[in-house]
Amino acid sequence: MKNNSRLRYFIYLSLIFIGGCTTGKNALQKGDYDASVEKSVSRLQNSPKNSEAMQVLKTAYDLALKDHLRKIEEAKASNDLFRWESVMYDYQKINQLADDINSCPACLTVVPGPTKYINELADSKYNAAAARYNSGLSYLRENNRQAAKKAYYEFEKTQNLQANYKDVKAKMEDAYWAAVARVVVQPIIVNSGAYKLSADYFQQQIDQFIGSYSRNKFVIFYGEAQATEQKIVPDQVLSLNFDDFVVGQTYVKERVEKLKRDSVVIGETRDKKPVYGTVKANLSIFEKNISSSGLLDMSITDWKTKKLVRQQKFPGTYVWRDSWASYKGDDRALSKQQLAITRRKETLPPPPSALFLEFTKPIYTQLVEDISYYYNNY
For position 23, what pLDDT does the model report? Predict the structure, then answer.
């Protein structure tokens, strides 16, 4: 009986708690008037005669309206350059509360004709757009790239607030091109016909990277030919040159292992019984390594001042490996794996152009990571 009484008491408390949450009473007590209105409206839409929700709505809406109007007056009286955005936000919240109540017939019996501030909202949006526009003009007058970026974002906010405000589209375009860094990437020169095709392929990969770069809208890369054709005056020049590269350094190493195995059948007696003994062999293992490596220098120079602003060096190495073996003696002294190696023959290495391409792969990875790191937030 005691357990049943406790269960009923727990259910009773739970229902009271749930009822308070769904009617918005708890939010009202915490001073979250907007949430209280929202919850009580939701409750009355599902249960139009809920007396507690009606009482909560009446109190919460009155307090919410007074709270937003107070914040509006405080914002208007402040010296904040962007105070009209705060004013706009509070008018939007008031209008949203009115829309919520208007969508609920039962709510209109409690709060008939909730107030909406249509003209006031429009005026605050216009004033907010004007503040952002004037801020953008101020940044643009500083006549430097970083300020131009700030101007661009201010004009972007202006456009979001008031799409056709004055000449904001033109100003946004002006700010963008004042903020853009034009980077001309000079082609790599390799003075060797044997590696020309591989160097061209490496260059094509770099061209594809700079052509598809989009992480920072304020950085545009141009190939040298493209810049010449379009008569681009660069802000920076990115140069790539191999300090040095070596292709096809060959190292051959021989390792000799003396092998023997006991208890191997080496014959039989006259009466056909096996004769056991030790077999021996010398295994010669050959390992060939062909190493190719290079060091790429990247330098970024300011076009106007001719000052070096960044320099990095990227190493790359590729080692082609081959192995084979031969033996002298009894092949029964060799394991299956060792015997398999002796059946392999020395293979021809890749051509020098392919080796060149291989050692540039890790260089390319480092290069594009560094370019991205430097320019993504430039």
Answer: 64
